[in-house]
Amino acid sequence: MLDGGDASTSAVVVDHGIEYAAKPPYKLVRQYVMGDVLGEGSQAKVREALDSKTLRRVAIKIINIKQLRKIRNAEAGLKRELSIHRRLKHPHVVEMIECFTIEKAEKQKEKCYVVLEHVPGGSVQDLLDGAPDGVLPLEWRGAFYASFWRASNIATRRASSTATLSRRIYWWPPTACCV
Asked: Which residue, among 46, 37, 34, has the nearest Cα to 116 in the 3D structure?
């Protein structure tokens, strides 16, 4: 990721006699070297990144504020979510490292960058896609249930009634949690 050289390099690429300005080999946002896209939604994109100061891999959720403002109360909801997430420190909750906003006046763009702990290994959907018949083995379901229960219990205790997680969301039939 870093072997491309300086991001401000203004090399010229010649293709079939036509000269093009070369694209920088990487994008730097604050001290973060942006990498591949890990996921994408209607208001946000998550990219892998490298903190150039600590060399720690992180995930950065990039939220388009302009898109967010089209949804009623979404901006207030985001602020509440970030306030709660900032206070949560637990092994079963992804750590929020920092959050910052960058405005680009010339393009009238405003983006919120939420820097999160990078959790390698794929998603739960990846596990489901690889499981026989798309069903997780019983012992895995029990482990996920226990993990979600602990995480949601921590969130609801620390954030009171404004919690973004709820025990109801992560319910499995009773037979799934018996390991």
From this structure: 46
Give the burial class of 155: count Cβ atoms within 10 A of its Cβ; 0-12 exposed, 13-18 middle, 19 or more buried: buried
For helices 74-87 and 138-159, the axis angle rounded to 10 degrees is 100
Distance CA 80, CA 175 (A): 35
CB 158 within 8 A of CB 87: yes
Summarize pLDDT for 108-128 with one digit per residue, the tens. 688 999 999 998 877 767 777
Please tell me the predicted confidence (pLDDT) of residue 114: 95
Contact between 42 and 67 (Cβ < 8 Å) = yes
pLDDT in tens, 5-61: 444 445 666 666 666 666 667 788 999 999 989 888 888 899 999 999 999 999 999
State if pTM tops 0.85. Answer: no
Domains of the chain: 1-120 (3.30.200.20), 121-179 (no CATH)
Tell me: the pLDDT tens digits for 84-96? 888 888 777 889 9
